[in-house]
Amino acid sequence: MKRIVFDIEATGLSEAQICQLSYLIVDDSGVVGKNQFFAVDDMNPDAEAVHGFSMEMLEELSGGLRFADLASAIYAEFASANLFIGHNIAADVRYLQMEFARLDMKLPKIPTFCTMNHFTSDVNLKMKVNIGRPKPPKLIELCEYFELTEEAIAAKAQEWFGDGNAAHDARFDTAATYLCVLEATRRGKLRGVL
């Protein structure tokens, strides 16, 4: 079974472009990390404030490559997966679908596992306004729940991607998500995902 654990950084919220895609391919042969930066048309200042990637940085980090330049290879990898895993996975799948749609490509429907939704009850954070249910955890809150340190996550990001030592770098966030799934499995809180 081929699982892809992934995270995306984007240029904004709606009609945005992907500026970084990081993913781990997890199958019977092991774990392989892949990361790609993309040159983009514009950047929402709020998005840049979160991930820290300016258009100039992305041009350099990507070597001038855009999503369209690598879309076929990315599509082949993602379309052959049995399961997508991510934190707020619905948002990241939407970004992928938007990018592929711009190129008249359609990503097949692949089952997903969302760490944010699945572990909301376990983490049990209080909402600012009590509406009778817990607040979905941010990825860093989920990592704290599973007692994963930033240093441990950064070390695994380094191992799998060669870099990615801070939150909101998709490499770090992908490593954090996968480590949460591993720890949940180890603790018996999760079965059948890995």
From TrEMBL:
GO BP term, pick one: DNA replication proofreading
Alphabetically ordered keywords of this record: Exonuclease, Hydrolase, Nuclease
Recorded GO MF terms: 3'-5' exonuclease activity; nucleic acid binding
Residue span(s) of domain Exonuclease: 2-190
Pfam families: RNase_T
Species of origin: Candidatus Ornithocaccomicrobium faecavium
Superkingdom of the organism of origin: Bacteria
Any GO CC annotation of this UniProt entry: cytosol
Transmembrane segments: none
Keyword Nucleotidyltransferase among UniProt keywords: no
Protein name: 3'-5' exonuclease
